[in-house]
TrEMBL record:
It is found in: Mitochondrion. Residues 382-531 form the Asn/Gln amidotransferase domain. Belongs to the GatB/GatE family. GatB subfamily. SUPFAM superfamilies: GatB/YqeY motif (SSF89095), Glutamine synthetase/guanido kinase (SSF55931). Subunit of the heterotrimeric GatCAB amidotransferase (AdT) complex, composed of A (QRSL1), B (GATB) and C (GATC) subunits. The keyword Lipid biosynthesis does not apply. Its EC number is 6.3.5.-. Its main location: mitochondrion. This is Glutamyl-tRNA(Gln) amidotransferase subunit B, mitochondrial.
Length: 541
């Protein structure tokens, strides 16, 4: 196979080129030795985001992930004859907010349609969706991914959004292999979904995973979807094809219902490899629906979706067109409860993750890659900002402490910052104490570990009890500095020869020998002072 998928950066559309334009795709990828260009991957996603609402899209049944099977099913959800849909205002607002945040045009008039298919967990035999005229069109999802050996170079990319449509979720089929039965749970039937259809602007699994992670953050910031992929709140269908740049797009396969960003990347890259092998072997790719088997890491054809689907779309006769307004266009005497105002929702949009990251970098001078980690972890931005404000410690020190020590502990316990409440409050105070007393490093880690055990002792108490406070005694530190200088002759000569970077190594040694307690600023000052003196006779020059 002539194309490697180890990295998509060489084959992906770069930040400076308008995504999706044929010229962008044909501008590179030519194999200098070959007469025809190499095959490249094309990826387009359909993302189903479950709307964060207390009730379903067209009924008043509760939405609850963990309720007992079939305990939240209204007559309408079960498709009993004579029942009618009543549109949930909250779902409409969520779709409008999502569209606005992604720069879409909001259609002031949109329509509902029936999409028919036969499946046991779809009792009506059709799903209500928005095929002809969806609520939002156009728009763009900007995302970044970190590349480079240390993953510290930020590459910005864009993917165009074709449309966002409101639709119903289906029920769930639960397969009981022991009894050879399939059981149906209709709790999910009729839950509000936003289907976001993305244009085929991506070229590999890594890009698709980064785009989905960014969308997840945006939806969470908006509060329109909780975005928990493992609970199925965000499910992705990956459309994948290969072609030679300059030629029409290849036949796509659709890998259905992927519920983790990591699996999404793996499924797409596997599927690209598979299709490239087919095309290079002279075969043709079939337009089929496939599933990802995470155990084998392979995609396999789905038996139930063989052949071309005819959904027999028709207008939904029980729902009038959905009309949205701006404040100025609301007709007189309209019931305000029946009105969704687009301009009002626009004003209510919160700060989006991209803006938060930029703000963290400019306000606190932290590295861009650190701003990504802060924003990616639920509750960590507020935590970081709170600690900086309360301690007035240098943000660069706080970020080191938060990312290295706090996150390490949280990961061990499989917790997020928000979940660590009620520990959150004492933790914040412990950070304050640590920032004042011992700045960062090993002593802070010890304090945190003690607090985590829940002994009830305060951070200050632990610092005093274990003698973890910052060491500020000049003569004590000077002695350690001298010992370190004497035992590192090569480093000292390198420093004296002008290699200033070596100083950090010596500072590190002093901190190590004092178990991280020596005040780093004092250590630096003493080392510089000691090393500025002319060497004694016999000492390395
Ligand atoms: N050649 C291609 N290669 C990869 N992706 C493609 C290609 N052509 C279209 N796509 C992607 O396929 C998706 C099509 O989604 P859309 O909802 O319009 O139709 P569908 O998949 O036929 O319908 P359904 O909603 O029933 O799955 C889009 O995300 C689009 O970007
Ligand atoms: Mg679709
Ligand atoms: Mg599809």
């Amino acid at each position: 196979m002539s194309t490697s998928l180890s990295s998509c950066s060489s084959r992906s559309r770069s930040a400076s080129v308008q995504p999706g334009s044929p010229s962008a795709a044909s501008a590179r990828h030519w194999n200098s030795s070959a007469t025809s260009p190499q095959l490249v991957g094309v990826v387009g996603l359909e993302i189903h985001a479950q709307i964060y609402a207390s009730t379903k899209l067209f009924s008043s049944s509760q939405v609850c992930f963990s309720s007992p099977p079939n305990s939240s099913v209204s007559f309408f959800d079960a498709a009993l004859p004579g029942t009618l849909p009543v549109l949930n205002r909250r779902c409409v607002e969520a779709a409008v907010m999502t569209g606005l945040a992604l720069g879409c045009t909001i259609n002031k008039r949109s329509l509902f349609d029936r999409k028919h298919y036969f499946y046991a967990d779809l009792p009506a035999g059709y799903q209500i969706t928005q095929q002809r005229l969806p609520i939002a069109v156009g728009g763009r999802l900007s995302y970044s991914h970190l590349v480079g050996r240390k993953r510290n170079q930020v590459v910005d990319k864009n993917v165009r959004i074709k449309q966002i449509q409101l639709e119903q979720d289906s029920g769930k089929s639960l397969h009981d292999s022991y009894r050879s039965q399939t059981l149906i749970d209709l709790n999910r039937a009729g839950v509000g979904l936003m289907e976001l259809v993305l244009e085929p602007d991506m070229s590999c699994g890594e890009e698709a995973a980064a785009a989905v992670r960014e969308l997840q953050l945006i939806l969470q910031a908006l509060g329109t979807c909780q975005g928990n992929m493992s609970e199925g709140q965000l499910r992705v269908d990956a459309n994948v094809s290969v072609h030679r740049p300059g030629e029409p797009l290849g036949v796509r396969t659709e890998v259905k219902n992927i519920n983790s960003a990591r699996f999404l990347a793996r499924a797409i890259d596997y599927e690209l490899q598979r299709q490239m092998a087919v095309v290079e072997g002279g075969g043709t790719v079939l337009n089929e629906t496939r599933a990802f088997d995470f155990k084998s890491g392979q995609t396999v054809p789905m038996r139930d979706k063989e052949g071309l689907q005819d959904y027999r779309f028709m207008p939904e006769p029980n729902l009038p067109p959905l009309i949205l307004y701006e404040r100025e266009t609301v007709p007189a005497h309209t019931d305000p409860r029946q009105v969704v105002l687009v301009d009002q929702l626009q004003e209510q949009l919160p700060e989006l993750p991209r803006v938060t990251r930029d703000r963290l970098v400019t306000t606190y001078g932290i590295l861009p890659e650190h701003s990504f980690t802060l924003v990616n972890e639920d509750g960590l931005v507020d935590y970081f900002v709170g600690v900086v404000q309360q301690t007035r410690a240098e943000p660069k020190k706080v970020i080191g402490w938060v990312l290295n020590d706090l996150l390490g502990l949280l990961k061990q316990q499989c917790l997020t910052v928000s979940q660590s409440c009620p520990l959150g409050v004492p933790l914040k105070w412990s950070l304050c104490v640590c920032a004042r007393v011992c700045v960062c490093g090993e002593p802070c880690r010890q304090v945190l570990q003690e607090l985590w055990k829940g002994s009830g002792k305060s951070a200050k108490h632990i610092v005093e009890e274990q003698g973890l406070g910052l060491m500020r005694d000049r003569s004590e530190i000077q002695q350690v500095c001298r010992r370190v200088i004497d035992s590192h002759p090569d480093e000292v000569s390198a420093l004296r020869a002008g290699n200033k970077n070596v100083l950090n190594k010596l500072i590190g040694q002093v901190r190590k020998q004092t178990k991280g307690r020596a005040d780093p600023q004092l250590v630096r000052a003493i080392l510089e002072e000691e090393l500025s003196r002319p060497p004694f006779h016999g000492e390395t020059t």
